Amino acid sequence: MTPVLRLVDAQIPGRLNRSDLDVPGGEFVGVIGPNGGGKTSLLRVVAGIDGSARTLEIAGEKLSAAPPARKSQLLSYLPASRDVPWPISVRDTIALGLTAPDYGRVADLLGLLDLDGLAARPVNQLSTGERSRVLLARALATRPRLLLLDEPLSNLEPYWALRTLDVLAEQITSETAALVALHDLHQLDRFSRIIVMDKGSVLLDGAPAEVIGDPGFSTCFRVEEGAAGWAIKR
Ligand SMILES: Nc1ncnc2c1ncn2[C@@H]1O[C@H](COP(=O)(O)OP(=O)(O)OP(=O)(O)O)[C@@H](O)[C@H]1O
């Protein structure tokens, strides 16, 4: 079956070393790694924003050949920055994620992320966590084949961090996948696969337990899991 993502020989000079990645449908992938490890760089090359790749195909389609409307059905990219300069409403911000007006879909997303009470507010006047939920709703709007989310859990209160993982897991079907950058090591079991980026390369790639159990994991993160939870590696 055609993978949702096929990436061959991707690189951003000085940031991302030559990397290959195959993501079949149904995968919910956590992308972790130390600061500067290359998580954002990997997401940006897959989004077609930075760098180059010999092959970058989403659901078998060459991303660079896709017209903008098709591109937004193939993938959505949520950048790590939550800055939004526009004084436009939450409802209209979510609608901007769509390729054609569909206020039924916007209403569903407002409900899904508990944003009904904020729908008429200017998005640039929300708190950072509130804005995170709006931008996530916008990223989900087209039901893309591939979700690329850079730290969607940062700035969220515990309830919304957990609920966001539930919402994301519910979006995954056999024909879609998600790559989610995060730092919270307590959430790794929620993913079907974990990729560890270190020094601009994929260091580890596998099921959560396999990756956490690899000796390279604690060396790279300089933390280790003990009876009392994660602690600095001595
Ligand atoms: N615009 C840029 N120009 C040049 N180098 C950059 C740029 N952005 C990032 N880098 C460098 O590329 C490397 C990878 O950065 P990247 O942002 O991909 O890491 P990250 O794993 O997402 O980090 P973090 O956890 O801090 O968000 C780092 O060494 C960083 O300093």
Question: Could you characterize the architecture of this molecule?
Answer:
By secondary structure, the protein is of the alpha/beta class. It has a single domain, classed as P-loop containing nucleotide triphosphate hydrolases (Rossmann fold), CATH 3.40.50.300. It is 30% helix and 26% strand. The chain is built from 8 helices and 12 strands. A 6-stranded mixed sheet has the order 6-7-8-3-9-10, with helices on both faces. A 4-stranded antiparallel sheet has the order 2-1-4-5, covered by helices on one side. A two-stranded antiparallel sheet has the order 11-12. A hairpin with a 3-residue loop joins strand 1 and strand 2. The longest helix is centred in the C-terminal third of the chain and has 14 residues. The radius of gyration is 18 Å and the shape is globular. The mean pLDDT is 96. Bound molecules: adenosine-5'-triphosphate (ATP). The site of adenosine-5'-triphosphate has 11 residues, from helix 1. Adenosine-5'-triphosphate binds next to helix 1. InterPro entries: AAA+_ATPase, ABC_transporter-like_ATP-bd, P-loop_NTPase. GO terms for molecular function: ATP binding; ATP hydrolysis activity. Part of the ABC transporter complex HmuTUV involved in hemin import. Responsible for energy coupling to the transport system.
